[in-house]
Design a protein that fits this description.
Layout: H1 7-15, H2 20-32, E1 43-44, E2 53-55, E3 60-65, E4 71-76, E5 79-84, E6 90-95, E7 101-109, E8 113-122, H3 135-144, E9 155-162, E10 165-171, E11 178-179, E12 188-191, E13 198-199, E14 201-205, E15 208-212, E16 221-224, E17 234-235, E18 245-246
């Protein structure tokens, strides 16, 4: 069944009783007569924004959400494609490949119009210098274009208490955990049941970090880079820094205070 049919068309196609090609032209004619409603609540996927670069010479996927059953028109340069939001409110079109150029406007029209300005088409290059806030976007585009590149620093996964130490496990190590200057890991704090954190010592053990302090005999929680201006030095093999994290969910001392 062709994606993007009006729900009524989908019903008839699923039940049979009319040759699908004929039915397709019937509903195309209905569209020309503005029988389809313009989509409400149009939203771009967060990966899209102004000043983005789209990969040249490949199909360009454009997706997001809108109210189910509504018609959406996607425009880029001289291309114009129509789509229908499915029963779950999802919408997706693949624009034809475009050679390097721009700037363009990426436009989506429904009940309202959304314009993304200064859109370029070229080579999508993702560098290790991206900020932490940009990492989800970088990772998203890496997946869209099938790029096998590291896009995140070490991410805390789990912990295990062993005696007076806590072992931390990480993902996105990309060749192993590293520190700047091959020094011991810095930026860790550890606490016991009294929830009072003290500066911790740490050492690397494969894709794990072992954390301890002589002051804490029975540790229960660890935090990393959990300060306004932290001194920290943990990276992965791709040279990307670890994100701040904590293993506890304790409320801060200002919680509930105005």
């Amino acid at each position: 069944m062709k994606a993007g049919f009006h729900p009524v068309a989908e019903k008839y196609l699923q039940e049979g009783g009319m040759e699908s090609t004929v039915l397709w032209f019937v509903f195309e004619a209905m569209d020309c007569q503005n029988i389809y409603p313009q989509a409400l609540n149009i939203v771009f996927n967060p990966l899209f924004g102004e000043n983005i670069v789209l990969q040249q010479k490949q199909k360009i996927p454009v997706w997001g959400t809108a109210k189910s059953g509504g018609k959406v028109t996607v425009v880029l340069d001289e291309q114009k494609q129509k789509e229908m939001a499915d029963s779950a409110g999802n919408r997706h079109v693949d624009l034809a490949p475009v050679v390097a150029g721009g700037p363009y406007e990426l436009i989506i029209r429904g009940k309202k119009t959304i314009r993304m300005k200064n859109v370029l088409v070229g080579e999508v290059c993702l560098y290790s210098g991206q900020s932490k806030m940009e990492m989800p976007v970088v990772g998203g585009w890496a997946k869209v274009y099938g790029m096998d590149i590291p896009y995140s620093g070490p991410m805390y996964k789990s912990m295990k208490i062993q005696g007076d130490t806590i072992h931390l496990v990480f993902t996105y190590t990309d060749g192993g955990l590293k520190t700047k200057g091959d020094n011991a890991p810095e930026g860790f704090a550890i606490a016991g049941a009294d929830r009072k954190f003290v500066r911790a010592k740490a050492r690397m053990m494969g894709d794990e970090i072992v954390v301890w302090s002589p002051e804490i005999k029975k540790p229960v929680a660890v935090r990393y880079a959990w300060a306004a201006n932290p001194v920290c030095n943990l990276y992965n093999g791709a040279g990307l820094p670890a994100s701040p994290f904590r293993t506890d969910d304790w409320k801060g001392i200002t919680y509930g205070k105005k």
